[in-house]
Specification:
alpha/beta, Rossmann fold, 6-stranded mixed beta sheet, globular, disordered C terminus
Length: about 150
């Protein structure tokens, strides 16, 4: 399966709303791709889900920020914190780059302009949610030459 990293805003959009971000989250949930996250990324996710402007939507879903994060944690593969291979203008972006680099993610999915401007780090392409779906449609479920948990060929 394609290894990916989703930033907090893409994950929040996918968990709370419809559209392209939700399709990316569903691709993770259905096993089309494998998402990786670190503890600091999950803390950021809970922080964003706790924004007052999102409280109404979270409540409409019958959820809590902590509950949504707990559910997401069961879907992603948790990895230890790592150092970012590059410094970013916004240090809050560095954990996403660090995890993507550490796990050899094929895609880092974000709407963040600073990250999108970087474009690529090592073998990781930095794409928006639509770019992620296009890549998955073109390249399928598996990454050639790269084995993941549970694969033995």
């Amino acid at each position: 399966m394609t290894p990916v990293v989703l930033d907090a805003n893409v994950t929040v959009s996918g968990l709370l709303y419809g559209g392209v971000a939700q399709q990316v989250v569903e691709a993770v949930r259905t096993g089309t791709c494998t998402a990786y996250a670190s503890p600091i990324m999950l803390q950021e996710l809970e922080r964003v889900l706790s924004y007052p402007r999102l409280a109404r939507r979270v409540t409409q879903l019958g959820a809590t920020p902590a509950g949504l994060v707990a559910d997401w944690t069961r879907v992603v593969l948790l990895v230890p914190e790592a150092a970012s291979p590059i410094a970013c203008r916004d240090p809050a972006d560095e954990p996403y780059l660090a995890v993507a680099h550490a796990v050899g993610a094929q895609l880092l999915v974000t709407g963040d302009r600073d990250l999108l401007t970087i474009g690529r780090i090592g073998e990781t392409r930095i794409v928006n949610p639509a770019g992620c779906l296009a890549w998955l449609a073109e390249h399928g479920r598996r990454r050639p030459g790269h084995l993941h948990r549970g694969e033995d060929d």
